């Protein structure tokens, strides 16, 4: 009997490594391509089902490798159509991912880490300490699961992906990049990178790295305040990654990619609800074409944070528009099942 613990995760191998493995086994490199296609494009859960591979080769793979897959443990559907998946990983940890349907789109909101190491005071995920990074296949599988659900319940494929689930994607950059490579590759899901948005709370060094890597997906930054003192009080890591550094990294990003930046922003009563706050935001946005998404606040606690009034939102919208900044006011989806922004892991 082969010791289970000695088996390697076959999906951790690149295509090249898989090809080399077969050559080392005295087989053809091409066999690696075939198996790779089964693992990614066809999402095979077992070696047994790889019908164009000989029984002998399948047994050999079985003896050497495991195929890890996520498992959707629980699926909840909101009255507005939103679906939240509780996803069990191979080591029994749980993350959440969300399917958000609109008239014309299906968006997958996926997690990049189990828990989060940042401590945004308004976000439920921050209460779970970061346990580990997700592997590329665990990110990819969340997307596949939502694509399947979209086909099943809405009779159309997934159209967009946002990295706005649990975790900070830029603190798991390499794995997020590998997952996106597979999602966009014709050997994976073949999605356009233009339909993928990575949302970050703002890690300047990694934003510059993304620019250097010439990534083709979109960037969103969770800003919430353009005044250091205020931002630090609600997003304490801002004491280390200050607005000046963030802005410098975003200037670098824009210079290299020419790609517009989206800012996510919640307006809270008594925190960032004055004309001074919106003026600072306008000033922060000036260096590059920008879009501001004003997100509705989803309460996660006993009322420490309260969404500002609609007249305050109007003040934001008017000031931003007057200054030529695109602004959208985004209503939350899936609140009744705790699937809205910042609510993931609220009840676990
Ligand atoms: N760590 C990444 C991605 C996860 S958060 C980031 O910070 O961007 C996804 C978005 O939800 C962020 O813009 C975040 O600021 C926002 N968010 C967090 N908690 C929220 C809440 N309670 N209500 C509304 N939006 C929230």
TrEMBL record:
<keyword id="KW-0963">Cytoplasm</keyword>
<dbReference type="InterPro" id="IPR007197">
    <property type="entry name" value="rSAM"/>
</dbReference>
<comment type="similarity">
    <text>Belongs to the radical SAM superfamily. RlmN family.</text>
</comment>
<keyword id="KW-0408">Iron</keyword>
<keyword id="KW-1015">Disulfide bond</keyword>
<dbReference type="Pfam" id="PF21016">
    <property type="entry name" value="RlmN_N"/>
</dbReference>
<feature type="binding site">
    <location>
        <position position="199"/>
    </location>
    <ligand>
        <name>S-adenosyl-L-methionine</name>
    </ligand>
</feature>
<dbReference type="InterPro" id="IPR027492">
    <property type="entry name" value="RNA_MTrfase_RlmN"/>
</dbReference>
<dbReference type="GO" id="GO:0030488">
    <property type="term" value="P:tRNA methylation"/>
</dbReference>
<dbReference type="InterPro" id="IPR040072">
    <property type="entry name" value="Methyltransferase_A"/>
</dbReference>
<dbReference type="GO" id="GO:0000049">
    <property type="term" value="F:tRNA binding"/>
</dbReference>
<dbReference type="InterPro" id="IPR058240">
    <property type="entry name" value="rSAM_sf"/>
</dbReference>
<dbReference type="Pfam" id="PF04055">
    <property type="entry name" value="Radical_SAM"/>
</dbReference>
<keyword id="KW-0411">Iron-sulfur</keyword>
<keyword id="KW-0479">Metal-binding</keyword>
<dbReference type="GO" id="GO:0005737">
    <property type="term" value="C:cytoplasm"/>
</dbReference>
<dbReference type="InterPro" id="IPR013785">
    <property type="entry name" value="Aldolase_TIM"/>
</dbReference>
<comment type="function">
    <text>Specifically methylates position 2 of adenine 2503 in 23S rRNA and position 2 of adenine 37 in tRNAs.</text>
</comment>
<feature type="binding site">
    <location>
        <position position="116"/>
    </location>
    <ligand>
        <name>[4Fe-4S] cluster</name>
    </ligand>
</feature>
<dbReference type="GO" id="GO:0051539">
    <property type="term" value="F:4 iron, 4 sulfur cluster binding"/>
</dbReference>
<keyword id="KW-0489">Methyltransferase</keyword>
<dbReference type="GO" id="GO:0046872">
    <property type="term" value="F:metal ion binding"/>
</dbReference>
<dbReference type="GO" id="GO:0070475">
    <property type="term" value="P:rRNA base methylation"/>
</dbReference>
<dbReference type="GO" id="GO:0002935">
    <property type="term" value="F:tRNA (adenine(37)-C2)-methyltransferase activity"/>
</dbReference>
<feature type="active site" description="S-methylcysteine intermediate">
    <location>
        <position position="341"/>
    </location>
</feature>
<dbReference type="GO" id="GO:0070040">
    <property type="term" value="F:rRNA (adenine(2503)-C2-)-methyltransferase activity"/>
</dbReference>
<dbReference type="GO" id="GO:0019843">
    <property type="term" value="F:rRNA binding"/>
</dbReference>
<feature type="binding site">
    <location>
        <begin position="167"/>
        <end position="168"/>
    </location>
    <ligand>
        <name>S-adenosyl-L-methionine</name>
    </ligand>
</feature>
<dbReference type="InterPro" id="IPR048641">
    <property type="entry name" value="RlmN_N"/>
</dbReference>
<feature type="active site" description="Proton acceptor">
    <location>
        <position position="96"/>
    </location>
</feature>
<protein>
    <recommendedName>
        <fullName>Probable dual-specificity RNA methyltransferase RlmN</fullName>
        <ecNumber>2.1.1.192</ecNumber>
    </recommendedName>
</protein>
<dbReference type="InterPro" id="IPR004383">
    <property type="entry name" value="rRNA_lsu_MTrfase_RlmN/Cfr"/>
</dbReference>
<keyword id="KW-0698">rRNA processing</keyword>
<feature type="binding site">
    <location>
        <begin position="222"/>
        <end position="224"/>
    </location>
    <ligand>
        <name>S-adenosyl-L-methionine</name>
    </ligand>
</feature>
<feature type="binding site">
    <location>
        <position position="120"/>
    </location>
    <ligand>
        <name>[4Fe-4S] cluster</name>
    </ligand>
</feature>
<feature type="binding site">
    <location>
        <position position="123"/>
    </location>
    <ligand>
        <name>[4Fe-4S] cluster</name>
    </ligand>
</feature>
<keyword id="KW-0004">4Fe-4S</keyword>
<keyword id="KW-0808">Transferase</keyword>
<feature type="domain" description="Radical SAM core">
    <location>
        <begin position="102"/>
        <end position="336"/>
    </location>
</feature>
<keyword id="KW-0819">tRNA processing</keyword>
<feature type="binding site">
    <location>
        <position position="298"/>
    </location>
    <ligand>
        <name>S-adenosyl-L-methionine</name>
    </ligand>
</feature>
<keyword id="KW-0949">S-adenosyl-L-methionine</keyword>
């Amino acid at each position: 009997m082969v010791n289970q613990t000695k088996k390697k995760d076959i999906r951790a191998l690149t295509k090249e490594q898989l090809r080399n493995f077969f050559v080392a086994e005295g087989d053809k490199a091409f066999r690696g391509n075939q198996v790779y296609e089964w693992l990614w494009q066809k999402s095979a859960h077992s070696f047994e089902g790889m019908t164009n591979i000989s029984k002998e080769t399948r047994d050999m793979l079985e003896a050497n490798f495991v195929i890890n897959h996520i498992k959707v443990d629980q699926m909840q559907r909101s009255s507005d159509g939103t679906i939240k998946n509780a996803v069990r990983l191979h080591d029994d940890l749980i993350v959440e991912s969300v399917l958000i349907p609109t008239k014309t789109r299906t968006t997958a909101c996926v997690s990049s880490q189990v828990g989060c190491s940042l401590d945004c005071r308004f976000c439920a995920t921050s209460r779970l300490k970061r346990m580990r990074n997700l592997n590329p296949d665990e990110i990819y599988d969340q997307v596949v699961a939502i694509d399947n659900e979209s086909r099943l319940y809405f009779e159309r494929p997934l159209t967009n992906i946002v990295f706005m689930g649990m975790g900070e994607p830029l603190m798991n950059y390499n794995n997020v990049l590998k997952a996106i490579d597979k999602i966009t590759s014709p050997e994976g899901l073949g999605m356009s990178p233009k339909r993928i948005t990575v949302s970050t709370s703002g890690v300047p060094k990694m934003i510059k790295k993304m620019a250097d890597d010439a990534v083709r997906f979109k960037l969103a930054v969770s800003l919430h305040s353009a005044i250091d003192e205020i931002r630090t009080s609600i997003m304490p890591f801002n004491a280390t990654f200050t607005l000046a550094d963030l802005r410098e990294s975003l200037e670098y990003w824009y210079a290299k990619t020419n790609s517009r930046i989206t800012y996510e922003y919640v307006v809270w009563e008594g925190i960032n609800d004055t004309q001074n706050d919106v003026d600072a935001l306008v000033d922060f946005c000036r260096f590059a074409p920008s879009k501001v998404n004003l997100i509705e606040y989803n309460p996660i606690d006993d009322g420490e944070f309260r969404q500002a009034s609609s007249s305050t939102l109007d003040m934001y919208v008017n000031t931003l528009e007057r200054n030529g900044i695109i602004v959208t006011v985004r209503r939350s989806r899936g609140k009744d099942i705790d699937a809205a922004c910042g609510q993931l892991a609220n009840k676990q």
